[in-house]
Write a structure and sequence with these properties.
Blueprint: E1 2-11, E2 14-24, E3 31-36, H1 41-55, E4 60-63, H2 67-81, H3 85-91, E5 97-100, H4 111-127, E6 132-133, H5 134-149, H6 168-173, H7 195-213, E7 236-239, E8 251-259, E9 265-272, E10 275-280, E11 284-286
Parallel strand pairs: 1-6, 4-5
Antiparallel strand pairs: 1-2, 2-3, 7-8, 7-11, 8-9, 9-10
Helix pairs in contact: 1-2, 4-7, 5-7
Length: 305
């Protein structure tokens, strides 16, 4: 978990500061976003209670050395110590273990720090320069949460006709995401007093910034000192297309490769649903197979006879 901000919101005729908080599940890779009215321990504890009410009690929380996190941990331990021994014994299994990074060591965060940086960069670019009504800001954060939780994690289906990937939303809800399609408004609506349209414009801008900065980082681009494996036929990949509406992650199968003069594959034909597109490899993110079973073997897609 981590906090980010501040953002300026309009409350009547004055402006106030608000902060965001992000919870990143290291098992399902799901993201939970919420709004804080202040950066103290009390506001964090209320956000934690809202998180537990909606997502369940976590066994462990990892964070940096934020004073609000330390204060919350101390208050929870003091409240637990005041309970009777019988209650302590019954509630011992429900205690939350706080784990803090060393001071000056944000790289200890790993996966969640990378996600947080991507969210912060895209949000600051679109939101921090303007004062929004609090309701608009809260709507934008939850829209962003839905976008992040709909991105594919990997591929597990053994049916070639089924290209529905595993997403955090699928793991959270137990079914495919049935959200309504997004409404696209012209940019001029961002200056409108209609708060609903303003929130949709900001969500679209976040999506544009996110795919521009985050998705290219999923493809390793190291120096060509050692040869890397080329993409192969039947590989399942995600297409990166900035022109698509937000929260749309097209998944397809490579049906043909186009070797260059040096023998490496730099463009392919990818089939998405009923259409075949020719795209460069730089616009594709190959999805790994999700391990299946205790032995760690991966489930791969096979052709049906």
């Amino acid at each position: 978990m981590d906090c980010f901000g501040p953002f300026m919101v309009k409350v009547g005729r004055r402006t106030e500061k608000r902060w965001g908080i992000i919870f990143k599940c290291l098992t399902t890779r799901a993201v939970h976003l919420d709004l804080l009215t202040s950066i103290d321990a009390v506001s964090f504890l209320m956000a934690l209670r809202r998180f537990i009410a909606r997502r369940g009690t976590p066994a462990e929380l990892l964070s940096d050395q934020g004073t609000n996190f330390w204060g919350a941990e101390r208050e929870l331990h003091e409240a637990f110590a005041e309970l009777s021994p019988e209650l302590q014994q019954q509630l011992a299994k429900q205690q939350i273990a706080f784990r803090f990074n060393p001071p000056g060591g944000p790289h200890f965060g790993g996966a969640w720090e990378r996600e947080i940086r991507s969210v912060k960069t895209a949000l600051y670019t679109q939101v921090s320069a303007q004062s929004l009504p609090e309701e608009v800001l809260r709507t934008v954060l939850i829209e962003v949460e839905g976008i992040l939780n709909s991105k594919p994690l990997g591929y597990v289906s053994s049916n070639v006709a089924d290209l529905d990937p595993v997403t955090p939303n699928l793991l959270l809800m137990g079914r495919l995401d049935g959200s309504l399609p997004q409404i696209v408004y012209p940019e001029i609506e961002g200056l409108s007093r209609r708060r609903w349209r303003h929130s949709q414009i900001l969500a679209d801008r976040f999506w544009s910034g996110f795919i521009r900065n985050y998705l290219p980082s999923l493809q390793t681009r190291q120096k060509w000192r050692t040869p890397s494996a080329d993409i192969v036929i039947d590989a399942v990949a995600m297409l990166v297309d900035p022109q698509l509406p937000r929260a749309l992650w097209p998944i397809g199968r490579v049906v043909k490769v186009h070797p260059s003069a040096d023998g490496h594959i730099r463009s392919v034909d990818i089939k998405i649903k009923d259409r075949v597109y020719t795209r460069p490899v730089a616009r594709l993110v190959v999805l790994p197979a999700i391990p299946d079973g205790e032995d760690g073997s991966a489930t791969t897609a096979t052709h049906s006879s």
